[in-house]
């Protein structure tokens, strides 16, 4: 009897939840899905591109879906993105959702602070005037990780998974650059050996965590996975404890400034350490996958590889193509339009962040073509530039194909004019986000990716083990979280060149 009553109550509750919200006049089309409360959460999480493309076909470029009790309005018209990107924080705020994710993924809970102030302060530490010292440190650390590994020195062919090779190289070198080295002298062999071992340990633990992070973000870890996730985090907190970091040499200005910012907020040491892991993810989870996709596209497209190699050899002096890549000046790093186009094209195809805002008050959204929609307080608003502009066939011919010169004009300068509905687009590709959420590490990331690819192409013979190997599909769970990762890896053979 009691069970029946309970079921009845549950049914009423579900019915209330199900029939509780209807579309009001002037609101975007509403699609709640068939399952009460859960709505479209499963399809959304499983493959956001497939799901949102189907919704776009059904409803057009703005619609609201229900997912796990939340109503999310999706806007897919790049001509209207500005309205969202620059709206005041009193109406559309990025921060509440970021705080939810910080807690779910990294157990980080910080006191209230002004995110714009924090961003402005940290931007200085990753851009000029600190960019040149970061770039130089990255160059040293890339060599420590990649060239001075004893297993490389033998000059024998080695087989490895390309994603693993790129992700570990970039994360280890990026970690050493931002979080510091064992000793001050980069050339000290004992210090290099310790840096190699320690950075590998950090990478190995981080990689295990990374396998579970998407599920953690969606609160869908099983009990067993949750236990494993918590234990990996504990190991990483040991490795990144602020006490341990304080003892490292060559710490970046970014690290010291971020730590000071936490101290100023009154955050205790445990929470500071957790924040250090969160930052390892925000600074290191994208550049490695970018190097992977770019190298893979170059290996699969010989004309692109030849063009990038040709430009590299022309740009770098002879000394640099035969040994001393660490001295590449910023001026030279900035003189590679072919490489830049190939990188932009790679990121167009493989960077898929959501740009998310919490709606803090009932408001009206006026789109580029003067359509007006009402948004409700408590809902979420989300842009997904991967569907449009990045993969939009109206903007890019054959958008699914890698064309290394897509972002080049015939005179070799950067192409920036792309159109939709006859109108020139301000946002034609958005791998770095935009507006107040733009990536503050972009310039450092581009320098680092360039240095890493140049190092691979200069020092190594590198080829696909199976030249016919297909470019793998994406791990579709990762849509919305930045750079995509492959569903399966691709094996390469590589060895140090005879110089
Ligand atoms: C290919 C490489 C990279 C890509 C595609 C990328 C992309 C992005 C995107 C899309 C965002 C905005 C996230 C959001 O608002 O939800 C972001 C934020 C951020 N990125 Fe990057 N990023 C890359 C590399 C880096 C690197 C190497 C660093 C630092 C060394 C870095 C530091 C940051 C930081 C600190 C933020 C947060 C900024 C904030 O507080 O809003 N990124 N990145």
UniProtKB/TrEMBL annotation:
State the superkingdom: Eukaryota
Q: Which terms in the GO cellular component ontology are assigned? A: caveola; endoplasmic reticulum lumen; endoplasmic reticulum membrane; nucleus
Q: Which GO terms describe its molecular function?
A: heme binding; hydroperoxy icosatetraenoate dehydratase activity; iron ion binding; monooxygenase activity; oxidoreductase activity, acting on paired donors, with incorporation or reduction of molecular oxygen; prostaglandin-I synthase activity
User: Which sites bind heme?
Assistant: 439
Q: Which UniProt keywords apply?
A: Endoplasmic reticulum, Fatty acid biosynthesis, Fatty acid metabolism, Heme, Iron, Isomerase, Lipid biosynthesis, Lipid metabolism, Lyase, Membrane, Metal-binding, Prostaglandin biosynthesis, Prostaglandin metabolism, Signal, Transmembrane, Transmembrane helix
Q: Which reaction does it catalyse?
A: a hydroperoxyeicosatetraenoate = an oxoeicosatetraenoate + H2O; prostaglandin H2 = prostaglandin I2
Annotated membrane topology is: Single-pass membrane protein
Which cofactors must be present for this protein to function?
heme
Keyword Ligase: yes or no? no
Give the signal peptide as a residue range, or say none if absent: 1-22
Compartments in which it is found: Endoplasmic reticulum membrane
- Primary place of residence? endoplasmic reticulum
Q: Which Pfam families match?
A: p450 (PF00067)
Q: Does the keyword Lyase apply?
A: yes
Kindly list the positions annotated as binding substrate. Answer: 104, 110, 286, 380
Q: Which GO terms describe its biological process?
A: apoptotic signaling pathway; cellular response to hypoxia; cellular response to interleukin-1; cellular response to interleukin-6; cyclooxygenase pathway; negative regulation of inflammatory response; negative regulation of nitric oxide biosynthetic process; positive regulation of angiogenesis
Annotated EC: 4.2.1.152, 5.3.99.4
Role this protein plays? Catalyzes the biosynthesis and metabolism of eicosanoids. Catalyzes the isomerization of prostaglandin H2 to prostacyclin (= prostaglandin I2), a potent mediator of vasodilation and inhibitor of platelet aggregation. Additionally, displays dehydratase activity, toward hydroperoxyeicosatetraenoates (HPETEs), especially toward (15S)-hydroperoxy-(5Z,8Z,11Z,13E)-eicosatetraenoate (15(S)-HPETE).
Extract the PANTHER family matched here: PROSTACYCLIN SYNTHASE, PTHR24306
What name does the UniProt record give this protein? Prostacyclin synthase
Look up and give the organism this protein is from.
Anolis carolinensis (Green anole)
Q: Which gene encodes it?
A: PTGIS
């Amino acid at each position: 009897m009691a069970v029946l009553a309970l079921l009845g109550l549950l049914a009423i509750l579900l019915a209330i939840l199900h029939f509780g919200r209807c579309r009001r006049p002037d609101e975007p089309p509403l699609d709640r899905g068939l399952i009460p409360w859960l709505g479209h959460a499963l399809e959304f999480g499983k493959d956001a591109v497939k799901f949102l493309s189907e919704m776009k076909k059904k409803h057009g470029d703005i619609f609201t879906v229900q997912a796990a009790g939340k109503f999310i309005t999706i806007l897919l018209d790049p001509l209207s993105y500005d309205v969202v990107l620059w709206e005041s924080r009193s109406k559309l705020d990025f921060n509440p959702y970021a705080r939810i994710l910080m807690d779910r993924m990294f157990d980080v809970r910080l006191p209230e602070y002004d995110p714009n102030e924090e961003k402005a302060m940290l931007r200085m530490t990753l851009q000029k005037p600190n960019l040149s010292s970061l770039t130089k440190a990255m160059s040293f650390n890339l060599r420590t990780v990649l060239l001075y590994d004893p297993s490389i020195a033998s000059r024998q062919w080695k087989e490895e998974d390309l994603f693993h090779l790129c992700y570990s190289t970039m994360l280890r070198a990026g970690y050493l650059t931002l979080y510091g080295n064992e000793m001050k002298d980069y050339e000290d062999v004992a210090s290099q050996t310790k840096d190699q071992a320690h950075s590998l340990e950090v990478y190995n633990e981080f990689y295990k965590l990374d396998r579970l992070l998407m599920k953690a973000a969606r609160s869908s870890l099983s009990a067993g996975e949750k236990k494993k996730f918590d234990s990996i985090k504990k190991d990483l907190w040991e490795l990144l404890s602020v006490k341990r970091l304080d003892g490292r040499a060559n710490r970046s200005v970014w690290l010291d400034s971020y730590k000071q910012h936490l101290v100023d907020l009154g955050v205790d040491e445990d929470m500071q350490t957790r924040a250090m892991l969160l930052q390892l993810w925000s600074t290191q989870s994208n550049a490695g996958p970018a190097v992977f996709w770019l190298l893979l596209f170059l290996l699969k497209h010989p004309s692109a590889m030849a063009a990038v190699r040709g430009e590299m050899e022309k740009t770098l002096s002879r000394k640099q193509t035969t040994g001393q890549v660490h001295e590449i000046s910023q001026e030279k790093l900035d003189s590679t339009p072919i490489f830049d186009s190939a990188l932009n094209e790679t990121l167009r195809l493989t960077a898929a962040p959501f740009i998310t805002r919490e709606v803090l008050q009932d408001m009206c959204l006026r789109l580029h073509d003067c359509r007006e929609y009402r948004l409700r307080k408590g809902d979420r608003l989300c842009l997904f530039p991967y569907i449009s502009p990045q993969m939009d066939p109206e903007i890019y011919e054959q958008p699914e194909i890698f064309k290394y010169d897509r972002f080049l004009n015939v005179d070799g300068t950067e192409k920036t004019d792309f159109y939709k509905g006859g109108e020139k687009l301000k946002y034609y590709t958005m791998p770095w986000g935009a507006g107040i959420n733009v990536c503050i590490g972009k310039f450092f990331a581009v320098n680092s990716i360039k240095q890493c690819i140049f190092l691979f192409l200069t020092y190594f013979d590198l080829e696909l083990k199976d030249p016919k190997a297909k470019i793998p599909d994406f791990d579709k769970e990762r849509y919305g979280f930045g750079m995509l990762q492959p569903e399966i890896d691709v094996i390469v053979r590589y060895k140090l060149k005879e110089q």
